[in-house]
Specification:
single chain, 179 residues, mainly alpha, flat
């Protein structure tokens, strides 16, 4: 079941990443056209940058599921089959620990319990925690940056799911492995 959830989530991530890739292309073309006619839309640059960041994080998470992450295999390729499998599980465990740490850091960064304790009053939250994550707007879009930064939550949750599925042998990487 974990493998199916991981596969479904990876498909969602790739679909969103593909949409964002198309959006980036359209935004850059819009930027070229508007600048060439002397009516530049400065928010387009910022939106393209944020779309690129979201695309990269979604793609990186999905790559964990599909086993397409960048890897240096010069050492593991020389190992016997059993040791290679142990090394692969060790890598999956390290990625899972990293993903869980990312979730912990996101929890600390966004501090949802402190926000709730302050009655969702951002100014009271800032005064109590000296955390300004909910106060900073984007430069040209005027959108609160915590919405942009929420990709860290999405990445961390996806990476946790995919690395756990790989660790227990239900990820796509293990099912497609010919060895």
């Amino acid at each position: 079941m974990i493998g199916r959830i991981s596969a479904g989530w990876a498909r969602v991530e790739l679909t969103l990443a593909a949409f964002l890739a198309v959006s980036i292309t359209v935004l850059i073309l819009l930027n070229v056209v508007t600048r060439s006619i002397g009516a530049a839309l400065f928010w387009v640059d910022e939106l393209a940058i944020y779309a690129m960041a979201w695309m990269a994080f979604l793609g990186a998470s999905a790559a964990l599921h599909f086993g397409h992450a960048v890897a240096v295999t010069i050492l593991t390729d020389t190992l016997p089959s059993m040791v290679r499998k142990i090394a692969a599980k060790l890598v999956d465990l390290i990625v899972l620990i990293f993903a869980l740490a990312m979730l912990w850091f996101c929890w600390r960064w966004y501090a949802p319990l402190a926000l709730i304790q302050n009655g969702f009053d951002v100014e009271a939250f800032q005064g109590a925690t000296f955390n300004f994550v909910y106060a900073e707007p984007t430069t040209t879009l005027g959108v609160p940056k915590y919405w942009i930064w929420s990709v860290m939550w999405v990445f961390s949750l996806g990476a946790t799911l995919h690395s756990f599925a790989n660790l227990i042998g239900q990820g796509t990487e293990q099912q497609d492995d010919p060895s």
